[in-house]
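Database export, one record per block. Field names are fixed; values are copied verbatim from the stored entry.
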Amino acid sequence: MSDWHTFIHQRYKVSRLYITSLCLFAFAVLSGCSIGGRAVEAPVEYLTPSGWQNKRALLRHSSFAEYANAVVNEVRLHRIPFDPAHTEIETALSSPVELPLAPHCIESAGIAILVHGLADTAFSLRDIGGVLADACYKSRVILLPGHGTKSGDLLTTRQSDWQDTLNYLIDQAVSETDTILLVGFSLGAVLTLDAAVQRQDDIDGIIGISPAYYLSSERITKWAPLAAPIIRWVDRGVADDPMRYEAMPTRGVAETWSSMKQMHRSLKEYGPVTIPWMLAQSMDDAVVVPEQNEVLWKSHAASSESRLIRFVSDREYPEEKRTINLPGNSLENKVIALTHLAIHQSPENPHYGKNGNYRNCGAGMPREADSIKLCEQSEDVWYGLWSTEQQPDRPMAYSTFNPSFDRFADEIKRFVIRQ
């Protein structure tokens, strides 16, 4: 090999390693997780696409019920179950659903379309959907293409698939009601803000929860579109949560970045946001940049009915016009801080709640085995960020529920009732 070819080969190896490291860190931050040195990787069938997001087949139904049923069938066909004994339950919880109005509702106040985040399923926004159903909205919790089946399906999913699905469902809702609310978590908050700012004549309000308007890993994540054709996978780990992917292709991060760029272009072209806009976030969120999100909201939220909700733990934040501060910690519930995955989940959630059947102990992280074991086996666990200072003999888990959820629910109802 010539000196020139040796130089190119070495530079390529170094660049590839560098890009891999960047993407690993970017996904770790983006997903609220961290990548450890796993010895066990997901079987190849989890990493192979099946392509359930066939837009021609799915985006042609006249009613949401028909669309949801078609997606359920696709999930049932392509999903690899976490527990084969609970295949149908997992399919139902992962898939789109319209939650029934609360019994006290005489008529519908409108339609709310709820959009989850990267690696998530429709299950993640069921608690918020229940809040809106109690406010007499038809809550339609959707499933983004590439999700709910197996991680490999994100290899063939593009930003346009997510946008087309959301716009199709908005068009469907426009034909049924005069009042439409968009609700999004993380990536879903990016997609819903992008759609809302372009369609302010159709949309009556928007709620962004832990929005990925800005990422703490932004300087790294922006390289994902270039890295995706070279390095297909950021993480190939085996999932410990049936409601979220663990393995993640670089393409999923790349399309999230593209969605963010598109949202910012839309704000520049169509802004300000004249419809009521609620932004809710934990000020301890390490995935996004809460301060930058707040600046964006303050500079673009033109409606006097817009609201900013901060969940605050150990810092003081001023009370300002249109801004509400709520507790982001709770000694009673042993919650030290709220993570990216926490504020939209009720303590009563059967999966992510205080007594739920899932606890994030960081088994996929470079944590000490003793810390993981203590977290998994203890009945007396504290919840916070992975950066939360550890104390001897105090088991720590990643917080996945919000002890102030009921107060958050009250603020959501006040916000939507004004629409």
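Remark 1: Residues 335 and 402 are 8 Å apart (CA to CA).
Remark 2: Confidence is low (pLDDT under 50) at residues 1-25, 31-39.
End of record.
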